[in-house]
Amino acid sequence: MGIISAKNRRLQVSRRAYEEILQTDAAINPGNSGGPLINLYGEVIGVNAFIIQSSQSLGFAIGIDSLKPHLHKFFRE
After folding, report:
1. Which of 13, 46, 59, 72 stands the most exposed, by the fewest C-beta atoms within 10 Å?
2. How high is the pLDDT of residue 17?
3. Are the C-beta atoms of 1 and 59 separated by less than 8 Å?
4. Is 45 exposed, middle or buried (0-12, 13-18, 19+ CB in 10 A)?
């Protein structure tokens, strides 16, 4: 369904800490990370980052507000 079930989660994966993560039930299959997480209005609200299969395949996305300061690196003005 793509429902956000938690906002601003903090997760530790291997030795890397992730802040302000969105938890979703959106299907994120291996190889699908990096795709947009979109709300009902067609707005990008995050970027799908990873799943944790051992926890009922919960999906996690990096919230768009955390990414905005870095977007200029990917787009030319």
Report:
1. 72
2. 83
3. no
4. middle
Q: Over the stretch 2-43, which tens digit does the pLDDT of each residue have?
A: 678 878 888 777 888 887 889 888 777 777 667 888 888 989
Nearest alpha carbon to residue 62 among 43, 38, 37: 37
pLDDT tens digit string along 41-71? 989 888 888 887 776 668 888 888 888 887 7
In the chain, the N- to C-terminal Cα span, in Å, equals 35
Report pTM.
0.74
Give me the domain span that covers residue 33: 4-73
* 1: Cα within 13 Å, side-chain hemisphere: 4
HSE on the CB side for 46, CA within 13 Å?
Answer: 24
Count the domains in the chain: 1
**Tally of residues, the chain:** 77
